[in-house]
Amino acid sequence: MTAKIGAALALPALKKTLKSFDASTYGGAPLLGLNGLVVKTHGNSKNTEIKNAIFQCVTFSEQNINDRIKENLAVNDNNENNDHSISTNE
Question: What is the C-alpha to C-alpha distance for residues 39 and 58, in angstroms, rounded to an integer?
């Protein structure tokens, strides 16, 4: 009985969490490392998933996501190069 009460109390949070993993909400997964915007969907995607994948691409385009990724990678690469440099002025 205690387990059923606990499950009933946890159900709303569980549904919310599972919804965040629902592919139809997002439409697909972005493919990174490409010179363009690609959102990969399943072959049996429904209309809603295709629509959401298109919206994802539009959002990525509006946010200049590819340029932002390139900029962040360049900054991280520069930081790593600076962290590994050896000073000869000791």
Answer: 11
Q: What is the DSSP letter of 33?
A: S
- Going 43 to 44 to 47 to 53, the CA torsion angle's sign is negative
* C-alpha angle 18-24-30 in degrees, rounded to nearest 5: 100
Q: Is the pTM of this model over 0.70?
A: no
Q: Which two tokens stand for residue 49?
A: 């998933």
**DSSP characters over 30-67:** EPPSSSS--EE--TT--HHHHHHHHHHHHHHHHTTHHH
> pLDDT band at residue 62, thresholds of 50, 70 and 90?
very high
State both tokens at 80: 């790593």
